[in-house]
Amino acid sequence: MDILMEGKGLHKVYRTGEVEVEVLKGIDFQIFQGDFIVVLGQSGSGKTTFLNIIGGMTKASAGELYYKGQPLHESDEHLLTLYRRNEVGFVFQNYNLMPNLTTYENVKLAVEIAQNPLSVTDILREVGLESWSDHFPSQLSGGQQQRVAIARAIVKNPELLLCDEPTGALDIQTGIQVLKALQKLNCVYHKTVMIITHNVEIAKMADRVFYLKDGLLDDVKVNEHPLSPEEISW
Ligand SMILES: Nc1ncnc2c1ncn2[C@@H]1O[C@H](COP(=O)(O)OP(=O)(O)OP(=O)(O)O)[C@@H](O)[C@H]1O
What we know:
One of its GO terms (cellular component) is membrane protein complex. The chain has a single domain (34-59, 84-231), classed as P-loop containing nucleotide triphosphate hydrolases (Rossmann fold). The protein contains six helices and ten strands. The chain has helices spanning 47-54, 77-87, 103-111, 120-126, 142-155, 172-188; strands spanning 3-16, 19-32, 36-41, 62-67, 70-71, 88-91, 160-164, 192-196, 208-213, 216-222. The radius of gyration is 17 Å and the shape is globular.
């Protein structure tokens, strides 16, 4: 399998005044093209920090990070902006939709800054929202709003979709709809997906599970038979 991303000895130290906290303590990892990765770890283990470094939102304090062989750790802010804009889609727990725009308009907004966007209509169909195009966020359920956020992240055609607790605010049924949308984008569009979560059940869907513990990648497990979202419950 082709390596999409590789990290070597990644460290992250946060400084607040005189106090230094080493959150990541030397992480080595690989992400393959088309991977579906779930990152598990206790609160404070460094999951969001890890995701933000992969997404080019935070710089590591030390270590090397390569995307398609290009050294992101040596990139200036301009190159990192292009990387974030063209290669990465982000999905967060709180959907961050524009309340005064419809579903279609919220997704279309992302197309305007993209180099090689997908069709808004196609993506809305893939996430099961084709009949909700003209609705405003306040007229949608939490699961539907999260699927708009996923459509917005994917329509710009990024290689990598990074999701921070995408089902954290959802009940199980709506959470499963969201996971189905993510799995479909992984299978149909071959997007590489990384989800961070506290929910160990979601890890059963992954190709590989990264276990973060005390700032280290404690273990990587391969799922020989990843489950579909309908087969998991929490
Ligand atoms: N910008 C920051 N400045 C200082 N400390 C930070 C900053 N961001 C995160 N931290 C600290 O780094 C540690 C790891 O945080 P992080 O959010 O990466 O962990 P997490 O595993 O995602 O946690 P959770 O599951 O609770 O979201 C925490 O102790 C947090 O307080």
